[in-house]
Every structure is written in C-alpha cells, then in structure tokens.
Design a protein that fits this description.
Blueprint: E1 25-29, E2 32-38, E3 46-50, H1 58-71, E4 74-78, H2 97-108, H3 113-129, E5 135-141, H4 142-149, E6 159-165, H5 170-174, E7 180-183, H6 190-201, E8 210-211, H7 231-251
Parallel strand pairs: 3-4, 3-5, 5-6, 6-7, 7-8
Antiparallel strand pairs: 1-2, 2-4
Length: 253
C-alpha cells in the first residue's frame, strides 16, 4: 500500500484560496431538500462528500469544487442534518458540562451515525439509479465514520476516502468491500490508523488503497476548521485534496 503517488500524470488541483466563494449551487436531490452540487452536468461518475458536524463551510465547499473541477465529475454534498442544522462552531470543543452534553445529544439524534449511514447508502443508490456509472464518497470527522461504514457489503460506492476521521475503528475497515484512502491528523489515534493500514494491506484491493498520517495537522484542517490563511495548513490542504483527487481518478476509472 502506498503513501504517495509517483505517477507523473497526477492531477494538479487549482490554487487554494483563503477567502473563498463556493462555485456550486444548492438544489434538492433524492430525499434531501438541500444538496450542494458542483461540477459538470456531463460527468459519467459522481462523488458524494459527507461534511463534518459543522455542516456547509467555505473550506469544505472549496474542497468539493477542487475535486469536481479537477476530475470533471459532479460532486454532491447533502445536508444530512436537515431540518435541524449543524453543531455550533464556536466554542468548540465545548468547555462546559452543558456544551459537552449538547454535543453528546447531537451525536445521539441529528448526527446519529446509523441513521446517517442509511441515508448515505440510499443517496449513493439514488445516484446510480439516475445514471452515475460509478460513485465515490469521502467524509470528514463524523462524516468519515459515516462514509467508511457505508462501504461494506452491497455498498453503492466504488471507493471511499476519510479525512481526519472521528471514532476511528479498525473494525470498520475489516468490513470494507471497496478501496479506502485514509488521511488522519495528529489528533486521531495513530495505533488505530496503523491497524487499519495493516488490514487494508491484506485486502484484494490493497493496491488501490492509499494513506498518509498528517502528524503536523490538527483535526479539521481539511474541512470547517481549516485555517487557509496559515501557510502550513494551506499547503497540507492542497496536499490532501491532491491525494483524494488522484485516489478517485484511479478507483473510479
């Protein structure tokens, strides 16, 4: 399993901007009333982005725009939290008992993983039924857990990627039936990441998997908590999206 791509024909992503205006539009797709949609109408394949607990953010939308424009593939980011809305970004992480309890309640209700895994699988099937030849999915934080758990038996997805994933578990990767690209930050358990890499190495699709441990990045650097005015964060944002793009270029071909 490789941690870098030596292919000279690797995709080059567009420049990353700190004050970004998303290029996509919101529309109703499948059972979702609100989906951020970006990329060409002519694309054969589709990719689903599962945002983090803060919902739609310019950083996450910029990432989706990068994936869509570089791969010339339509990217869909559904509003999994409708009609309730995302978790408040500030203050995070919660410091009061009340705030911590609110976060736990959020994970138990609006962001309940099992409920949202089912929604993601249903949406993937909807895209395939409506003409997508292959569908990929990637997710951040909470969305990483939802994404990896949607890639087991009978998954509609051809490949999945998880970036600074929450609730990281080697058990989830045992059940995978499609290639995985995994890109954790220093805040995720490295031991669990290494177990996952070991499990993937024994899979029949091991050569299609990818991984990199971002030891210099905080949880959230590639999504809502990314500080793109910070040069190092911006550089690693560019790095991980280049990896995601090349992973899907290979696995959705």
């Amino acid at each position: 399993m490789t941690t870098h791509n030596t292919n000279a024909a690797c995709c080059t992503i567009p420049p990353v901007i700190s004050d970004y205006t998303p290029k996509g539009v919101f529309k109703s797709v499948g059972s979702f009333n609100k989906v951020y949609v970006t990329g060409p109408d002519t694309s054969t394949n589709a990719i689903v982005c599962v945002y983090d607990i803060f919902g739609f953010y310019p950083q996450t939308q910029q990432g989706a725009d990068i994936v869509a424009s570089t791969l010339k593939t339509k990217v869909y980011m559904p509003d999994f939290f409708e009609p309730d809305g995302p978790f408040p970004h500030d203050p995070f992480p919660p410091t009061t008992d009340e705030g911590k309890e609110a976060l736990q309640n959020f994970f138990g209700t609006t962001a309940n993983p099992q409920k949202n895994i089912a929604k993601l699988i249903e949406f993937g099937n909807h895209l395939k039924t409506n003409g997508a030849a292959k569908v990929g999915a990637y997710g951040f934080c909470w969305g990483g857990k939802v994404t990896v758990c949607a890639a087991g038996e009978n998954t509609p997805f051809s490949s999945v990627s998880i970036i600074h994933p929450a609730m990281l578990s080697a058990e989830d990767s045992e059940k995978l039936t499609v290639p995985l690209a995994i890109y954790p930050s220093k805040d995720e358990p490295k031991e669990e990441f290494e177990k996952i890499v070991g499990i993937l190495a024994k899979k029949s699709f091991a050569d299609s998997c990818d991984n990199k441990y971002y030891s210099n990045m905080h949880h959230g650097w590639a999504a809502a908590r990314g500080d793109l005015k910070n040069e190092e964060n911006k550089k690693e944002f560019e790095d991980v999206y280049t990896k995601v793009v090349n992973f899907f270029k290979k696995t959705l071909a």
